[in-house]
Amino acid sequence: NANANANANANDARGGGRRETLVALASSLAVCASFVRAREGGGGTARAGVSIEDDSAVRRAIRDALTANVIKTKCPAVLRLVFHDAGTYLESAGDGGMNASVTYELNRPESFGLKRGLSVVKSAYEALQGTAAEGKVSFADMIACAGAYAVEFTGGPTFLERVPLGRADASTADPENRMPEQTLGGREMREHFARSGVSTRDMVALAGAHTIGGKGFGDAYTFDNAYYATLVADPWNKPNMTKDEAEMAEHIGLPSDKYMREDEENMKWITKYASDQDAFYADFVDAYLRLTSLGARFVF
After folding, report:
1. What does the CA dihedral 91, 93, 97, 99 come to, rounded to 10 degrees?
2. Active-site positions?
3. Helix or strand (DSSP H, E) at 115
4. Going by C-beta distance under 8 Å and a sequence separation of 6 or more, which residues neighbour residue 99?
5. pLDDT tens sequence for the chain (300 residues)
6. Measured between alpha carbons, how far is 58 from 38 in angstroms, rounded to an integer?
7. pTM for the full model?
8. What is the DSSP code (8-state) at residue 196?
9. Is 226 strand, coil or helix?
């Protein structure tokens, strides 16, 4: 009986120890999940160390500043600025990405025209002075938020409040020759983005941003799935085109847009988004949130 009682006590102790370990592990996982939700801006959860009330005030200040400074005709330029800032990330090197380094890269050939979007974001950022967001939002944060607002303003999905905050701003330019060439083929484009840790799905979804900006994909200031519908229709290779039609087709999109559809892997997503705008919106938001976190150092 004594031995039985001793064994029972030992089993209870081991069981209790396991239970305590599981409880501690569950608690740690809950904390980690809360931190991730805060970084993603989802579910109304505040950032780590920031109360929900304070975070809401910061978010309102950001939206008010963007509403007061962004006009619809500047939305394409604002969204392009985001891609040029985040697009320098290289996974193997672990540098570049969403850090506002674009402000030091304006003299590069691929940066031509970025000042149009940058001036808008600067005005909105300056408007944060004297608000709850002053000192709590970096310029990299504001670029990322401005792009989300540009999508919303032109009729796309609303997700501004989901953009994570707390990025550190760079003090120098990112390495050169990181942006994709406009002449890359579909497979080459996939390989380029893969080096940045961007999946094919995300790459094709993000390419839908070309639907605004007067590139020939529907209305210049309407964010919809016209980009994909145009790629499926293939206006560059229509049979029996007149000379005028052929010349007009040459003005639709970039060379990389034309080549995008020539890759089978890309076409799986292109055809899906052409027939399902809601799927495009959902995947674009997910891809955008990941893109604007590439290379970012969250410090506050």
Report:
1. 150
2. 84
3. helix 114-126
4. 85, 140, 167, 168, 169, 170, 174, 295, 296, 297
5. 444 444 444 444 444 444 443 433 333 333 333 334 334 433 334 566 667 778 999 999 999 999 999 999 999 999 999 999 999 999 999 999 999 999 999 999 999 999 999 999 999 999 999 999 999 999 999 999 999 999 999 999 999 999 999 999 999 999 999 999 999 999 999 999 999 999 999 999 999 999 999 899 999 999 999 999 999 999 999 999 999 999 999 999 999 999 999 999 999 999 999 999 999 999 999 999 999 999 999 998
6. 14
7. 0.84
8. T
9. helix
As a whole number of angstroms, the distance between CA 193 and CA 204 comes to: 10
Q: What are phi and psi of 214, to 5 degrees?
A: 75, 30
Residue from 66, 51, 68, 69 nearest 136 by CA: 51
Two structure tokens written together for 284: 């674009």
Q: How far is CA 211 from CA 1, 43, 139, 158, 277, in A?
A: 80, 29, 26, 17, 12
Residue type, 124: A
Round to whole Å and give the CA distance between 300 and 291: 19
Q: Which two tokens stand for residue 262?
A: 């020539």
CB 200 within 8 A of CB 269: yes
